[in-house]
Design goal:
Layout (H helix, E strand, L loop, with lengths): L1 H18 L1 H13 L14 E5 L5 H11 L5 E3 L4 H10 L3 E5 L2 H12 L3 H17 L5 E4 H6 L3
Parallel strand pairs: 1-2, 1-3, 3-4
Length: 150
């Protein structure tokens, strides 16, 4: 019982960090300092923000856009609401990819060995923000991106 509660608390803390710009950017700075980068969040000079829940064709769309628009500075792979909030704050266009929850969550659990609790919380919080801010976001489905990219 204690491990289940601890798992939920840790998942909730991670989701809160991903959701809060001040916390996310602080952790991001620390991780880059430690040489553990790999995420590219939105900054004032960003041209476009491309985000999705993990395992939802984020990489595929980013590579496609990068090859066709090499001059653009694209924020991507944070999977964080914090980056979406910064894009909104700076008036930067946002593209979000959405994949069926059962497919995206199952893929994340298998590929990255994450708990169901964490995966569900991340998915719900990420797309709840997108839903509540859909006027400022272009939403593409996983199928649109992977089956008809052009």
């Amino acid at each position: 019982m204690i491990s289940v509660l601890l798992n939920y608390i840790m998942a909730y803390i991670k989701v809160m960090i991903l959701h809060t710009p001040f916390l996310y950017y602080g952790v991001h700075f620390l991780m880059r300092f430690l040489g553990k980068g790999g995420q590219y969040p939105t900054y004032r000079d960003t041209d476009l923000c491309v985000e999705a829940y993990p395992s939802s064709a984020n990489s595929f769309l980013f590579v496609l856009l990068e090859r066709h628009f090499k001059q653009l500075k694209i924020a991507h792979h944070t999977h964080a609401v914090a980056s979406l909030k910064q894009a909104k704050r700076y008036g930067i266009p946002v593209i979000v990819v959405i994949r069926r929850p059962q497919d995206a969550i199952a893929s994340r659990m298998v590929r990255f060995k994450k708990s169901l609790t964490l995966c569900l919380l991340e998915y719900i919080w990420f797309y709840r923000y997108v839903l509540n801010n859909r006027d400022n976001v272009i939403v593409l489905t996983f199928e649109d991106v992977t089956e008809n990219p052009l």
